[in-house]
Structures are given as structure tokens and as C-alpha cells.
Amino acid sequence: MTRTYTLKRRAEQQAETRLRIVEAAIELHGSIGPAQTTFTMVAERAGVQRHTLYAHFPDERSLSLACSGLHIERDPLPDADAWRAIADRDERLRTGLAALYGWYERNADLAACVLRDAEHHALTREVVEMRYGQPMAACRDVLGATLSESQRAVLLLALSFFTWRTLVRESGLTSAAAVEAMIGAIGSASWARTAMP
Prior knowledge:
The chain is mostly helical. It has helices at 2-31, 39-46, 50-56, 60-74, 89-106, 108-118, 122-144, 149-159, 161-170, 175-188.
């Protein structure tokens, strides 16, 4: 009985240490970005030795996957399938954009750093595509289903985190006002794609 208890307690301590490491890395990813986060920084923030960190995460990729996995588990991107049943185009856009903009609001610092680093850091780009590619593609498909080609182009702009940040954080709109602005922009988009010379 004592041995079983000891093994169970050791497993619990290892799980707690692992979680502390992942949470420390997430905090760093949201403040300086994954590209600038080092194992030394994570170990210091988590209060563990580097060899302990390496025992849980042998490389940067395994740590990045654990961080993104925990973050998505705690706050997943909106499920676009739920919007398919909304027949009215503007109401579907309103519901979808409001849900996405709410997620951006809750995750603004982390998203800003991660998406910035994904531009130039291969591992971050891989993890972003792995974790967010399919949900964002579903948002594009469901919200763009009844839109024209030019309207879908504006929808891509509306779905961008950076558009949300410009409208809400930089311009001072509420998220609801930003949603309405983008619905208006999508509705008025009527140009035709022109061929490049």
C-alpha cells in the first residue's frame, strides 16, 4: 500500500511540475513570443532546473505542442459548424464574427505574439497551422458559403486577428461595433476580380 501511494504521489508531482512548466511557457509566449522564449527562461519562470524541464520536454517542438494543446483545451476557437443552421447571412456573420472576436479579446496578448512570430519562426508557423488552421478554415467556409468572390475576400479581412486589433484596440471600437463594421464592408463588396497583366 505504501509503495502504491508513493508511486501515485510521484506521478502527481510530475504532472504538477509538467503543468507548471507549460503554464510558464504560455506566459512567456504571451509576453515576449515563442520565438524569443528560451528553455532557460521557462525553467526560471517555472522554478525548475533545466534538466527537469528537459526530462519533460526534450525539445522546443514538444514544449510548443504542449503549450498550444493546453491553451486550445482551455479556450478552443469557436465551432463554426454551429453557425450553419443560421439561414440569414448577416445574422450568421454576426454570430460567427462575435464569437471569433470574443476569442481574440480573451487571447489578445498571446495571439499577437504568436501570430507575429509565425511570420518568421518555422516552428511557431507549424504549430499555428496545426492548431488553428482547420478551425479558421471552417470559419471561412461556413461564413463565406453564400458570399460572392469579392465578399469572401473581405471576409478574410474580417476574420483576421490583426483586423480585430486595428478596429478594437487601435481605433477604440467595441467588438460589437467592429462586427457591424465588417458586416457592412462584406455586404457592400461588389468588385470583380481583375486579371493581372
